Amino acid sequence: MNKKTKIGLFGFGVVGQGLYNILSQTDHFNAEVLKICVKNRHKSRPLPSERFTYDFKEILDDPEINLVVEVISDAREAYHIVTHALRHGKNVVTANKKMVAQNLKELIALQEEFGVSLTYEASSCGSIPIIRTLEEYFDNEPLHSIAGIFNGSSNFILSKIYNENLPYEAALKQAQVLGFAEADPELDVSGMDALNKLCIITAHGFGLAIPPHHIFNSGINNLHALDMAYAKAKGSKIKLLAMAHKVNSEQLIALVIPVMVHPDEDLYTVENEFNAVLVDAMFAGKQLFKGKGAGGFPTGAAILSDVSANFYEYRYTYKKRNNLKHTGNRLKYNPDFDIQVYIRYPQHMNLTAFLPVKDIIETGSDHHQQYVVGKVNLRNLLEQRNTLKQEKVFMMATHTSL
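Given the sequence above, the corresponding structure tokens read:
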């Protein structure tokens, strides 16, 4: 195959520069970055100015460029770039999980309409090739569930709190210093980052493209020393997990929530910035995939893999999604399902006035806080998520099995 991949690169931060350097120093990829689009005209850069452009159309309208690689952080701009490129017949590689998760149905339709490919392995779980694994290895095998640690920043924070007894703020600061958490860590600690990844992974694992706002997510930003003490007393670690679970042939549930993980479970030993994905398949059984999920190198490795795959004309086939459409399969996302949770909330708050808690097995109070352990309905949690956030309620599932 003599075809050469000619790349238009959007973004020249840590990941963009790393990708450029790798491609410049290796011949076997048969790929070349022709032009780089950036915003800041005045920023000092390690390449001659003629390598850069400040007009995105210079890349998107260039017939010589056959692959667009997008590594910017702004989801709205990324959407504009990616959709424009697909409509102009260019293949695209992106790492923007928020953009993909929010627009997945449209992005799939554009690929089909214009006969191009969009790959985004770097959007989900860093260096773990989970999307391609679901696409290729589990493309025909029914899955029972997918669950895991999808955010390395929050896992690093929780590891430091549990293993070194650090306060939440100190653990967060350490994650920021090491580059595992952003200056504004809200997306990581609120569970939004993991939620976007869950939406993408669920589409490939079960065939359902669920918009992020339809799925309940609760993070670790309201974690209190009382919560960690409770989990330790039960012999468990707290992990922020993303989960999609097939209840039966017609119902799938999905959520992001801190979970009490017990020592005999696979995810118990996954520490620091590592991600892990546990796939439970009908025939293959449980498979655990683990790798670094935070930092520039894991993301760069996944982007490089997509660039290489593009050379061989690889594209996602969305086989699970197509099977649902063409076989009459009745699987739907339906959050009408009860889960057992620990809820810690301020003493002044009348929790059950707006959130029914059933089958209560434990209650307690300490330091102007109280907690209850019982069952709540996922649909009720979705309806009340704004109130839960405003009142700084902390919630965690008591078991990984829903």
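The first strand starts at residue 5 and ends at 10. Try to locate this feature in the token string yourself.
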